Amino acid sequence: MTPATAKPLAPIPAREEDRLATLQRYELLDTPAEAAFDQITRLAAKLLKVPVALISLVDRDRQWFKSRVGLPVQETPREHAFCAHALDSDALLVVGDARQDERFADNPLVTGDPNIRFYAGAPLRTADGLALGTICVIDDQPRPALTPEEEEALRDLSAMTMAHIEARRAVGYLHPVTSLSNRFRFLADADALADDPATVPETAVVIDAAASQQYAELTRVLGQVCADAFEIDCARRIAACLPDHTRLYHLSPARFAFILLSGGDGDLADTLDRVSSAIRSPFQYQGVPIATSAGIGFVHRSDIAEESVELLRAATSAAHQSLETQKPWCAYDEEQDRAAHRAFLLLRSLTEAMDGQDQLHMAYQPKVDLRTDRCIGAEALLRWTHPELGPISPAEFVPLAERTALVRPLTEWVIGAVLTQVAHWHRRGIALPVSINISMLDLGSGDFADRVEALLDRHDVQADWIDFEVTESALMTDRAEVDRQLRSLRRLGIAVEIDDFGTGQSALSYLKDIPATAVKIDQRFIRSIADERSDQIMVRSTIDLAHDLGYLVIAEGVETDEAYDWLRLHGCDFGQGYLISRPLAPAAFEDWLAAGAFRPAAMPV
Ligand code: C2E
Ligand code: MG
Ligand code: MG
Fold this sequence. Notes:
Elements: H1 16-25, H2 35-47, E1 52-58, E2 62-69, E3 75-77, E4 93-95, H3 108-111, E5 118-125, E6 131-139, H4 148-171, H5 183-195, E7 203-208, H6 212-222, H7 224-241, E8 248-252, E9 255-260, H8 265-280, E10 283-285, E11 288-290, E12 295-300, H9 308-325, E13 330-331, H10 334-355, E14 360-369, E15 375-386, E16 390-392, H11 394-402, H12 407-427, E17 434-439, H13 440-443, H14 448-459, E18 466-471, H15 479-492, E19 495-501, H16 507-513, E20 518-521, H17 523-526, H18 533-548, E21 552-556, H19 561-569, E22 574-576, H20 586-594
Parallel strand pairs: 12-13, 15-17, 17-18, 18-19, 19-20, 20-21, 21-22
Antiparallel strand pairs: 1-2, 1-6, 2-3, 4-5, 5-6, 7-9, 7-12, 8-9, 10-11, 14-15, 14-22, 15-16
Helix pairs in contact: 2-4, 6-7, 7-8, 9-10, 12-14, 14-15
The structure holds ligand C2E and magnesium ion (MG) (2 copies).
């Protein structure tokens, strides 16, 4: 018997890499069976009176059957595939008796199951002349050549199969809601334009007709039918603004795109202005006006050397920029994009940091009583050393986490770390309350106080060993829930400070309602307090107001002896800042405490 390696292999077809790439693009491989293909193979078996009929796609190392009659296996190695021999010519491949054909005599499909004796296959060729595979019929009995009628039938079945493959692909290029061309079509068209030396460098435009949050809300509150109607209406309005023969694409929920081929920047600006005002007027759904915020971004092909996916990503990033800044439209800006990219990278690696042991740490910054100069507690501040980017400030990554679902596990991590430290310090006789920073978004979650209570139990920590610092976040919408959670925390016996006071949007009314114990005046008012008259007025009145409402007052950002003295003189209760100490690692904090109570140099001891 001929050893397997000596077996004559099928010739590799011309333009093989193109052929394989095209086969991938048709998205047929490894897809479920489809009735239309199965009807064709059944018809083939019947017309040619054979037990086995297949639609075989010849992949790099295998043939995979999109449809099969009479064969139990879904694929075979390419080296065994008869069909691999049928790709290079338009003629049918007919093997009357495989045992007599030196190409196939020792093929395992001939010598073993399914015991092929007779084979006839017709290539499935695209309009570009690339053969994806074959439609073939097989018998376990040898046969003389096909009759002319049978040959014709096999050719017709091959044409039918190809027609169905093409039709299926066309449908795969349409968005089901608007019937506009979809993202795949956009990328294919952009590729084709880039390859065509005759076209002027084009401009890709992406339109977000609503922020993703708004679209999700629309779907949730008014239902998918309304969301679909919204998209159809957007498509109609945008299409009405485009130059003739410009194709509009529907990429994803509420996201559209088009490619502008010619015209100077003036034409572009006119088109974008028209689109912008068209999508910004409220959409009416059953008499209800629904306003969304929209974003439009564009990028010139000449600015993006890379592939079309990158072109699309850049235009999408510009649209995002327009949404964020509320500008009618934005050009792609590499720098902004880099910042967004870094934000994405940080968010992605933050999860890993929370799971690991060595990237996140807490630092502790002392708070002192301005009358006695004694340490009365510490603020826990999160530190992140990224394995590649180095130390990342919480002022950078905390606001990012607040824009995603990550803020909740992050806060949980911080509370866990602080409670462990506080329990440890109490066991060693260091009984100072430690403040934990939380976001308003944490308080919106509905079960925050319950989770804190469970964590206190788990770490065996008493409620008055910690307190929380809360900043007003512009993102917070559910004030009632926040108040409920704060009241529950206070009932547990946990103090609450309002952080960064003076920077929020509604500081005064906020102060009246919020169930807090202390107000922490933001450092921007404190840093130059000794010299800036306007800061002095602000801080003095805040101290008085807060005291009148029953709150303690703490100043953050105390950097100079003069500031310290001024605050003490004006009745501020506590201070925190670089003058007293920078945030310290736990061991360094213990050393600082052991060194004795803090006294500013300017004070007589
Ligand atoms: P914050 O809560 O207002 O914390 C005070 C910030 O001011 C800290 O910056 C601290 O290191 C810094 N600071 C303290 N004294 C001085 C001073 O005298 N001069 C100056 N210029 N700065 C001083 P840090 O640690 O970079 O934290 C920045 C912000 O990040 C915090 O502001 C807080 O909003 C947030 N953050 C930090 N840790 C956490 C955390 O564990 N959870 C949450 N949710 N947010 C955190
Ligand atoms: Mg704070
Ligand atoms: Mg602060």
